[in-house]
């Protein structure tokens, strides 16, 4: 979400089952803002709904730990996984960390601003989202897609994918201890833009 002040959100937790799981040389892609949609800004003012089999709440610190069939909904944002940790800072911004199970992945999905049918969605072993910086990080067999009317616009695969929604910036990196001979190339499918640059 953007740098506007957001009041702390009350969080609800219920029981419900809803579950949702590519490695790389570093590359970064900066995308021109033309023809791009940003994350749905209305999401920042929506309440958070949490569902899991087990929920631990530290209300004073605004820390929420979840285990088992984790589901987080905030406006158009939907995050799923097996274990989750959510912390709300004094300004009301959320930091979300969700991990998948051994046989399933964590996932993230958000509608894009201005279009009811454009979405960003990703999955991997771990998904983290910082609402203040609007930085999405997916780690471990990570994939990230941008879809419009169910048609693929962009797709990235790698060990770790970072997407900065404010700067419209993708970054794909390998594990820090990876050997060059063991790494496949990062893979990206990108629809045409007016401006796009590739950095190494």
Task: Write the SSE topology.
Layout: E1 11-14, E2 27-31, E3 48-51, E4 54-58, E5 63-74, E6 77-88, E7 94-99, E8 106-111, E9 118-124, E10 126-130, E11 135-148, E12 151-164, E13 169-173, E14 187-190, E15 196-199
Parallel strand pairs: 1-3
Antiparallel strand pairs: 2-13, 2-15, 3-5, 4-5, 5-6, 6-7, 6-8, 7-10, 8-9, 9-11, 10-11, 11-12, 12-13, 12-14
Report on this model:
The chain is mainly β and 200 residues long. It has strands at residues 11-14, 27-31, 48-51, 54-58, 63-74, 77-88, 94-99, 106-111, 118-124, 126-130, 135-148, 151-164, 169-173, 187-190, 196-199. A 6-stranded antiparallel beta barrel has the order 6-7-10-11-9-8. A hairpin with a 4-residue loop joins strand 4 (54-58) and strand 5. It starts with 10 loop residues before the first strand and ends with a strand. Residues 1-36 and 194-200 have low confidence and may be disordered.
As an assembly, this protein is: single chain
Report the structural category.
mainly beta
The percent of residues in helical segments reads under 10%
Per DSSP E runs of 2 or more residues, the count of β-strands stands at 15
Report mean pLDDT, rounded to a whole number.
Answer: 77
Please work out how many helical segments DSSP would assign: 0
Rg:
17 Å
Low-confidence stretches: 1-36, 194-200
Q: Tell me the overall shape.
A: globular
Order of helices and strands: EEEEEEEEEEEEEEE
Largest sheet: 6 strands, antiparallel, barrel
In the sheet with the most strands, the strands line up as 6-7-10-11-9-8
Indicate the proportion of strand residues.
over 45%
Distance between the termini: 28 Å
């Amino acid at each position: 979400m953007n740098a506007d002040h957001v009041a702390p959100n009350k969080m609800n937790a219920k029981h419900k089952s809803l579950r949702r799981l590519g490695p790389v040389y570093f590359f970064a892609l900066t995308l021109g803002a033309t023809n791009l949609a940003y994350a749905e800004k209305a999401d920042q003012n929506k309440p958070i709904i949490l569902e899991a089999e087990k929920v631990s709440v530290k209300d004073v610190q605004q820390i929420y730990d979840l285990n088992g069939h984790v589901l987080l909904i905030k406006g158009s944002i939907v995050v799923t996984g097996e274990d989750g940790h959510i912390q709300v800072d004094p300004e009301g911004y959320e930091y979300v960390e969700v991990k998948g199970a051994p046989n399933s992945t964590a996932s993230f999905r958000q509608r894009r601003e201005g279009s009811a049918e454009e979405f960003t969605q990703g999955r991997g072993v771990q998904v983290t989202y910082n609402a203040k910086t609007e930085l999405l990080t997916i780690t471990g067999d990570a994939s990230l897609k941008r879809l419009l009317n169910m048609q693929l616009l962009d797709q990235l695969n790698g060990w770790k994918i970072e997407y900065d929604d404010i700067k419209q910036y993708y970054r794909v990196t390998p594990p820090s201890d990876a050997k060059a001979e063991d790494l496949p190339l990062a893979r990206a499918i990108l629809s045409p833009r007016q401006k796009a640059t590739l950095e190494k």
